[in-house]
Each structure stands twice: as C-alpha cells, then as structure tokens.
Amino acid sequence: MSIHPFSKRAAAGLALAALACAAAAQGNLPPIQSAAAAANPYGLQALWQQGDWVARGTLLMLVVMSLASWYVLITRLIAQSRMGGQGRDANARFWKADTVRQGAELLVKGSPFRFIAESALEATRKHEGLIGQVDMNTWVAQSIERAVATVHSRTQEGLAVLATVGSTAPFVGLFGTVWGIYHALVRIGASGQASIDKVAGPVGEALIMTAIGLAVAVPAVLGYNWLVRRNKIVMDTVRAFGSDLHTVLLAAHARQAAQATQPGPAAPPVTVDAG
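^ that's the sequence the OP posted. Answer follows.
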C-alpha cells in the first residue's frame, strides 16, 4: 500500500511544528540553579533584606559593639606590651644612674616610670611651707602613691567598654531573636497558613541575631579577663619601682640631713637628686 505524497508532506510539517514548539518551550523555562545558588532564607543577606528598621538597627548595633571591643582589645595589648618594655628598660638603666634626676632623663618620654620618678622629685622640691610640716617620708610616699594611682587609671582605659559589650551583647541579640519570632508569627497570621516560605526568613533572622550576639559577647569577656590579668602583672612592676624609688629618696634625704648636722669643714652639698 502506498502513501499519498500530500500525506507525507503533512506529516513532515506537523513534525517540524512540534520541534519548534518544544524549542520555544525550552527557551521560556527558567535556568536550572544548583542548590548552592538557591536563595538562602537564613543568610545575612536575607536578614538585611527581609528585616525592618528595628532588625537592621539591632544588627548595626551589634556590629558597632564588636568593632569597639576589638579596637579596645588590640590597642590595650599594644599599650601593655609597650609598658612592659618600658619597665624592663627602667630596671636596666634607671638604677645604674648616679642621681634620680639622671635616671629619669635616661627613660623615654611618656614612660610611666619616668612620670613616677619626676613626680617624686617634684615632691621633694615642694617640701616647704605648710607641706614642710609633714615629714619627708609621708609626703614622698603619698606623692608616689598618687603617681602610681594615675598610671593605674590609665591602664584601665577601655576596659569598661569590654565589660559593657560582654554583659549586654547577648541581650541585644536576644532582642533581635524575639523581634524575629514576632515577625514570623505576624506572617503566619496574615497568610493563614504556617508554610515554610512564610516563616523561614523571620526564623532565620531570629537565629542569626542570637548567634551574632554571642559572637560579640564571648571575645569581649575573654579579652576583658585577659587584659585585667596583664594589667595586674604590669602594675606589680610599677609598684615595685615606686617602692624602691621611695627608699632611695629617703636614704638620700637622710644623708643630706646627717651631713648638715655634722660639725667641721663644709662638705660638698648633697641633694635628694643624688639618690
């Protein structure tokens, strides 16, 4: 049995039309995305895009708190390292000088040990008038104690920031968590169904806020405890220096008083700076 030529042409035309329709349909289909390229409703980008001004403000607050705590931690570590080097320099050079004044001038400007030595020398020069009624031992000791207290207060700079961040960051993150859950409940109520696409974003926002709050607080607390411990070690060196300086100044003052009361030919003048 033979097929009419018209039937052959009609079948070929239908086949071509079917191929054209299939090609057009494939062109209109969206491109296939991998699982990694799919939108992540729990990511930081989704947190920023889906969150309102309260969520964004909370996130910015946590970022600022983290930056402040890391800035304080790094600057305090640098300052403590510098102060430790200045302490070693003072122990190596100051006590080998002939006088307290010469020893102070050997120390670098800005050194807390030079500040203590100069404060003690200033106290010996001002021991006159009403202050002269106080014995030298008490007056010099109080002057050195005030200088040491000033150095100690400088070493505490910035620690309040770490303590504040460490104690409040978890609660700031918790606030973001509560706010995110509130948004999830609002979306569920508005949609009338608890589908994953309605609650994934707000729940992810809540979980990320909690994690960020803890990530900000933990380094701040650890850094605070570490810096406090290092400050104690540095201040022990400062207090030991002040105690030794007090002893040297009193010994020099005692020699000066003894030579002033000795009869006989005039001896070369001895000042407290000679200690």
